[in-house]
Amino acid sequence: MTEGSDVRDQLALERTRLANERTFLAYIRTGLSLLAASAVLFQFFSTLNAYLAVAWLLVAAGGVVLAVGVWRFYTVRRRLNRGCYVQKKQHQLRDES
């Protein structure tokens, strides 16, 4: 490999790390929005049972989204640090040639 392709690979890896962080922040934002919506329902519509049921569903959905986001972020980060994605790319390039 040439020096230019090594730099290009490192920059691509850094872009992938930044994309992983942006995706993680999107999961966090979505989970917190669901939790905030449930708080609004609990605060202003606590006398209606249908709204309470929806509020509890939003709490559960928000928790699931947060958990999936954290799990996905650390899984992708671990694979990037191990070089799994880079190795997969190199294997694909070898198979094509």
TrEMBL record:
Tell me which Pfam families the record gives: DUF202
Q: Can you give the residue ranges of the DUF202 domain?
A: 15-78
Q: Does the keyword Zinc apply?
A: no
Q: Which UniProt keywords apply?
A: Membrane, Transmembrane, Transmembrane helix
| InterPro entries named in the record | DUF202
What parts of the sequence cross the membrane? 24-45, 51-74
| Bilayer topology annotation | Multi-pass membrane protein
Cellular compartment(s): Endomembrane system
Q: What is this protein called?
A: DUF202 domain-containing protein
